Structure formats: C-alpha cells, structure tokens
C-alpha cells in the first residue's frame, strides 16, 4: 500500500508541476488563445485591470474584413490570469448616423481605468470616424458604473486645443505658424523638415483645433493622477497629457516626448520611482524593434535607451507590438510568469484577419538596472 500511495502522490505532484509549467508557457505564446468556451480571445490593443478579486481584460473586437472592421470593445474576466471567460461587448459600435462611433468607424487601443474618487470605470480609445480613414485622429472617452459595462460613450475630439506643452519655446512660435508655407518644407523627410518638426511645426499646425491622438495608453500614478499618452503630430511625436481628476478630460498640462522620433504603441510602468516607457516604430502592421525610454518625472526629461529585447527575434519585438504593461500584484500568480512583477502585453497582428491576431505576453525582468524582454 505504501508503494502505491507514494506512486499516487508522485503522480499528483508531477501533474501539478506540469500544469504549472503549461500555464507558465501559455502567456508567452504569440498565437491563438482560447477563452473558456474554446473561442479565440478577440481583445486587441487593450489592457487589464483588477477589481474586487477579478481580472478584466479589455480590447478591440475586430472582424476579419481589414482595418475598418471594428465591432466595439470586448471584455474577458479571469480569477487567475490564465482562464478567461468572455463577457461580450462592453462598448458597441452603433447604427446611429449621428454618433461618432457609428458602424464603420475604427476603434483602437482601448484602455480602462478605475477612478477611486468617482467610483467610475473610464475608457479611453483612439477613434477614427466612419469614411475618413485615419484623418480624424481623435481621442474618445466612455464611462460605466460596472467593469463589464455597458460603457456609455461620452465624446471624442482632438486633445488640448489652444494649449502649449510644458517647456515649449514660445518665441519660436511666430515663424512655426507659417512653416508649412515654405517651399523647402513641402517635401517630407528632409533634414530641414525634420528639424522644424522637432521645433513644433506640426504642433503649431494643430494648436487651435487640438492635437492628433492615435496609438494610446492610460497610466494611473501612485498618487491617483492619470495620464493619457498618445502618438501625435502625424505619429511623429508622443504626448503625455494629464487627465482631469475624474479622468474624463484633459487638464491642459502635457509634454511633447521624442519630437520627430516616430513612436507609436506606447506602454508605460513605474518601478522604484523611475518611469519606463516601451514604444514601437511606425511600420504599419509589420513588427519592428522596440524602443525604451526612461525618466524620473513623468513630464520628463525622457531619455531614450537601446532596444530592451534580447534573444532571437529581438529586432522585431518577437513578432509583436506592445499594447500595455500590466503589474501583477498577486505574488502567487507571478509564479506563472517566472516571478516577474510586470508583463509586457503585445499583439501579433494579422492585418488580413485582425480578429485572429495573436497575443504575446513577455515577463519584464531587470538586468543592470534596466528592463529587459527575453523569450
């Protein structure tokens, strides 16, 4: 009996070990992830929040009919960051022709955060209006009393109209208002053109109507203040803009980061008082090398560092593009990810069938004091 009991216990232990090993590998994969019903998790460019012991994963819900394929924003829930149950659409496109989110619009990179003061769940996303391609470049906001919605669409528009960023050199603005009329600046990508972009030529172009807002994320700092981080100026420059106390608008305080550097897909986290931001270059749906930035203050100055990825596939971010960096607060659940406290969530885009795009989660580790992504 003793031998049988020992064999039984050994079998149980091995089963438990291999189940943990399988669970630890699943989040690293860049392929199809199934929910508890066996369907692929159709939640892209999104984020995760934890609320009252449950994890909520939000993301774009796409059909497989090309870029103009937005159905809305979906939500999945889990108790262990491994098994996800679909809760359906929490924000849907509408057939109302008077709505900014009319069917045929493009909804990208939704991020949901909880406002502890108002007790509301606030969603920000990049919105392109129906029939206008990527011309509108709007930030949109929706709100809900419940993490699984329904979210009520509030409004969309350009950001910080008429506001100057922190540290902007005001004496330069007189000629910047008219730069686009200069013949030598009609051709993009020349050294002269690039210099004027860095100075703020495109920023001044959009000053009165508000700044463009495309790829984006939302970050809530330790003090509860929230920041909207987005690609602006035709994706040439990042903006970090502080939100109002209710997270439903912008308070006018913002900075331009890496002006002229062509960054998109911003993701951000804070470790021991230092801010770290991982972005991608602008190569459409094709993957490229990640960029790493750091700062001691969220309003900068920000310093760019080398690509944080290591190993085979590092020059293409292992085939993915960042969506969000999630902090795993539960120490027990960190074991799934080798003990890492932060997860780099990425999408492996399939432009011809966006709904089937893959998911890639990579633990963030620190080496020589800097975050590193390894596979």
Automatic annotation (TrEMBL):
Highest taxon, organism lineage: Bacteria
Annotated protein name in UniProt: Family 43 glycosylhydrolase
Keyword tags: Glycosidase, Hydrolase, Signal
Coiled coil: none
InterPro entries, per database record: Glyco_hydro_43, Glyco_hydro_beta-prop_sf
PANTHER family associated with the record: GLYCOSYL HYDROLASE 43 FAMILY MEMBER, GLYCOSYL HYDROLASE FAMILY PROTEIN 43
Family as reported in the entry's similarity comment: Belongs to the glycosyl hydrolase 43 family.
GO molecular function: hydrolase activity, hydrolyzing O-glycosyl compounds
Keyword Signal: yes
């Amino acid at each position: 009996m003793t031998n049988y009991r020992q064999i039984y216990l050994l079998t149980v232990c091995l089963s438990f070990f291999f189940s943990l090993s399988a669970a630890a590998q699943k989040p690293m994969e860049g392929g199809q992830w199934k929910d508890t019903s066996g369907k692929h998790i159709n939640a892209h460019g999104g984020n995760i929040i934890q609320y009252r012991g449950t994890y909520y994963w939000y993301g774009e819900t796409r059909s497989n009919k090309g870029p103009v394929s937005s159905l809305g924003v979906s939500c999945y829930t889990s108790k262990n960051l491994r098994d996800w149950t679909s809760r359906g659409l929490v924000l849907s496109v509408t057939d109302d022709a008077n709505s900014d989110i009319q069917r045929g619009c493009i909804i990208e990179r939704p991020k949901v955060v909880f406002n502890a003061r108002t007790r509301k769940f606030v969603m920000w996303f990049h919105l392109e209006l129906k029939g206008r391609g990527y011309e509108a470049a709007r930030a949109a906001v929706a709100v809900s009393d419940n993490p699984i919605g329904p979210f009520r669409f509030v409004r969309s528009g350009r950001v910080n109209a008429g506001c100057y960023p922190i540290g902007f050199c005001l004496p330069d603005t007189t000629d910047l208002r008219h730069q686009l009329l200069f013949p030598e600046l009609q051709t993009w990508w020349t050294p002269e053109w690039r210099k004027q972009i860095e100075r703020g030529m495109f920023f001044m172009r959009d000053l009165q109507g508000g700044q463009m807002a495309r790829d984006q994320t939302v970050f809530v700092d330790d003090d509860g203040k929230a920041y909207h981080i987005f690609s602006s100026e035709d994706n040439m420059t990042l903006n970090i803009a502080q939100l109002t106390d209710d997270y439903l608008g912008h308070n006018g305080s913002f900075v331009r980061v890496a002006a002229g550097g062509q960054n998109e897909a911003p993701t951000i986290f804070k470790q021991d008082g230092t801010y770290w931001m991982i972005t991608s270059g602008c190569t459409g749906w094709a993957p490229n090398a990640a960029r790493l930035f750091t700062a001691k203050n969220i309003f900068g100055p920000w310093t760019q560092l080398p690509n944080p990825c290591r190993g085979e596939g590092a020059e293409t971010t292992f085939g993915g593009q960042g969506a969000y960096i999630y902090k795993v607060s539960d120490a027990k659940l960190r074991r799934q990810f080798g003990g890492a406290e932060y997860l780099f969530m990425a999408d492996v885009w399939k432009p011809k069938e966006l709904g089937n795009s893959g998911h890639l989660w990579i633990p963030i580790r620190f080496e020589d004091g800097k975050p590193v992504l390894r596979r």
